[in-house]
UniProtKB/TrEMBL annotation:
InterPro entries xref list: RNase_P_Pop3
Molecular-function GO term, any one: ribonuclease MRP activity
Polar residues: compositionally biased ranges: 8-21, 70-79
Comp. bias (Basic residues): 55-69
Name the UniProt record assigns to this protein: Uncharacterized protein
Record GO cellular component, one term: cytosol
PANTHER family: RIBONUCLEASES P/MRP PROTEIN SUBUNIT POP3 (PTHR28272), RIBONUCLEASES P_MRP PROTEIN SUBUNIT POP3 (PTHR28272:SF1)
Domain of life: Eukaryota
Spans annotated as Disordered: 1-21, 53-91, 119-156
GO biological process entries: intronic box C/D snoRNA processing; rRNA processing; tRNA processing
Residues of the signal peptide: none
Native organism: Clathrospora elynae
Extent of Basic and acidic residues compositional bias: 125-141
Length: 275
């Protein structure tokens, strides 16, 4: 027999990859015992709203052909005698879309500009002169736009901050549908004023909690649920969450706002070997 020569090892070339130089977002880690307590307090808070929906709000039966039928006396009596819904219903946001829209509005209201503007003195003086020349022409337009904005603010009211956002997903950091929430939460609590806002807590819960919350609210699915700060009956839940749930760290936003060069982050990877 002829002995086979040993196969020579081929040298693998390193692969260079670049990544973001900013600090990665860190979601809070909640112990299972704390998750159970938070879930119990949350269920006690939303149960009255679910009982009201179960008793006084009937599910839609779908579209039917229009007929000239007389309304049932039982329906009219129930509509007249239905009590007002619980106050907690005005302080809840149910569903990922509703929570996202509210956070986007808060971020647009509180977040500063994304990049500072550095202008020279000559440019500043020229812009001031142009403003003075165009001021008489634009005065009436500014007044009218200001009045419109004031009326819109009076109609819409001031947006209320959120004390917490509950997600029925155990690892939202790996979910593309939830990746935007830390950024929106961080931007929503930024403010140029002296008053400080208590950070909104992001609370990831197991997937099995979705069915329980949906049953308590008497709806098909929850997905996400947010509670306004100072909601009636939510004081015990808020205090427990602030004590046992950390703040979601989104430091890359503050680092990006400084507009400083942070260098290039390069990692070398060798296929089948060590970095």
């Amino acid at each position: 027999m002829v002995a086979m020569a040993p196969a020579t090892k081929q040298s693998s070339k390193p692969v260079f990859k670049t990544s973001s130089p900013f600090t990665e977002t860190k979601w809070p880690e909640i112990a299972p015992d704390h998750q159970e307590v938070i879930l119990e307090l949350l269920c006690n808070l939303i149960t009255p709203l679910g009982d009201y929906r179960r008793t006084h709000i009937h599910p839609s039966k779908g579209k039917k052909r229009k007929r000239t039928t007389k309304p049932s006396p039982d329906d009219s009596t129930m509509a007249e005698t239905a009590p007002p819904p619980p106050d907690i219903g005005k302080h809840l946001l149910i569903g990922l879309n509703s929570v996202t829209r509210h956070l986007e509005a808060l971020a647009a209201q509180n977040a500063p500009t994304t990049a500072p503007v550095f202008a020279s003195k000559n440019h500043h003086q020229a812009s001031e002169a142009a403003k003075e020349q165009s001021a008489p022409k634009e005065l009436s337009e500014r007044n009218s736009s200001t009045n419109k904005q004031d009326s819109q603010v009076e109609k819409k009211g001031v947006l209320r901050p959120l004390s917490m956002v509950i997600l029925t997903h155990p690892k939202p950091a790996l979910s593309p549908a939830h990746a935007h929430l830390p950024t929106l939460v961080h931007l929503s609590i930024l403010s140029s004023g002296p008053a400080s806002t208590i950070p909104t807590r992001l609370i990831p819960l197991p997937t099995s909690t979705d069915a329980r919350l949906a049953s308590k609210l008497h709806i098909p699915r929850v997905g996400a649920l947010a509670i306004h700060g100072g909601a009636p009956g939510a004081r015990a839940l808020e205090e427990y969450v602030r004590e046992h749930v950390g703040v979601t760290e989104c430091k890359w936003i503050d680092e990006a706002m400084t507009a400083e060069w942070r260098g290039l982050n390069v990692a070398a990877e060798v296929p089948g070997g060590r970095d």
